[in-house]
Amino acid sequence: MLVESAPPAGSALRPATDAIAADPGADHSVARLATRAALSTRQLTRLFHTELGTTPARYVELVRIDAARGALDAGSTVSEAARIAGFGSAETLRRVFVSELGVSPKAYRDRFRTATR
């Protein structure tokens, strides 16, 4: 799992991070997340840095990568995993996967299938 921490239970970020986790593929722009958390965009960004050590966009990307990994682990195709996780295309998922994990989504899926046999 790439997302290793969540904000504390009473954190003002909780509505935003819960929404991201519940539906990684949804529109999670900073403005929408700020509205969900009843914060200004500036305060939301500050809290992400302070509590999670990252930006809202990076947090969303990490949650989406985890969602794509889960979909691939469950047997989804690369295109299905990209759609489920909220990546615009299989190519975008491939680019992010290679950058973050050093392996393509297809190679990841094939390794997982081989490891679970």
Automatic annotation (TrEMBL):
Keyword entries, A-Z: DNA-binding, Transcription, Transcription regulation
Gene Ontology MF terms: DNA-binding transcription factor activity; sequence-specific DNA binding
Stored SUPFAM superfamilies: Homeodomain-like (SSF46689)
DNA-binding recorded as keyword: yes
InterPro entries per the UniProt record, alphabetical: AraC_XylS_family_regulators, Homeodomain-like_sf, HTH_AraC, HTH_AraC-typ_CS
Record bears the keyword Transcription regulation: yes
One Pfam entry name: HTH_18
Domain called HTH araC/xylS-type: residue spans: 14-111
Protein name stated in the entry: Transcriptional activator FtrA
Lineage, uppermost ranks: Bacteria, Bacillati, Actinomycetota, Actinomycetes, Mycobacteriales
